[in-house]
Amino acid sequence: MKGKLTRREVSDLLHIPLRSLDYLVRRGEIPFSRIGKRSVRFDPERVQQWFEQREGLPYHLGRGR
After folding, report:
1. Domain total of the chain
2. What is the dihedral sign for C-alpha 14, 19, 23, 25?
3. Residue 61: CB partners within 8 Å, gap ≥ 6?
4. What is the dihedral of CA 24, 31, 6, 3, to 10 degrees?
5. Whole-structure pTM value
6. What is the chain's alpha carbon radius of gyration, rounded to the nearest angstrom?
7. Could you tell me the residue range of the domain that residue 20 belongs to?
8. Sorting pLDDT into bands at 50, 70 and 90, what band is 54?
């Protein structure tokens, strides 16, 4: 893969809703780069590494604080 990925592309790649991806970004749990105040982009290699490191970990996007 070349270039940076958009939110939609990463959402599709990971098979998660955009809202879940936004949650991960807000919490700083997934690697991303900010473009301006609102836009973010993702390096495909870093997303792949992040995903591989999470293998076997429970996936929970709870509302608990």
Report:
1. 1
2. positive
3. 20, 23, 24
4. -170
5. 0.79
6. 12
7. 7-53
8. confident
